[in-house]
Amino acid sequence: MVTVFSKNNCMQCNMVKKWLVDKAVQFKEINIDDEPQYIDHVKEMGFMAAPIIVKDNVSFSGFRPAELAKLI
């Protein structure tokens, strides 16, 4: 399962989610604006900007289609 940590009004977050939907990849979205309890978790993972994409032991930030393709 792919997890996407996103924020409101985030163009890259929207692009990641659209890419996943277009490729029929199931994902769980956690909006850190709506669920601020996840902010510390994201920071502990070493990230300071959304979107953060996580699957198993792989995580990265930003809209990176080549990295997204490796997840599926």
Task: Describe the secondary structure blueprint for this structure.
Layout: E1 2-6, H1 11-22, E2 27-31, H2 39-44, E3 52-55, E4 58-61, H3 65-71
Parallel strand pairs: 1-2
Antiparallel strand pairs: 1-3, 3-4
Describe the structure in your own words.
It is a single chain. The model has no long low-confidence stretch (mean pLDDT 96). The protein has three helices and four strands, in the order E-H-E-H-E-E-H. It is globular. The protein has a four-stranded mixed β-sheet with strand order 2-1-3-4, covered by helices on one side. The protein is an alpha+beta fold and 72 residues long.
- The portion of residues forming beta strands comes to 25-35%
Total of DSSP H or I helical runs spanning 4+ residues: 3
Radius of gyration: 11 Å
**What's the overall geometry?**
globular
Specify the helix fraction band: 25-40%
Organism: Pseudolactococcus carnosus
Domain Glutaredoxin: 2-57
InterPro entries: GlrX_NrdH, Glutaredoxin, Thioredoxin-like_sf
Pfam families: Glutaredoxin
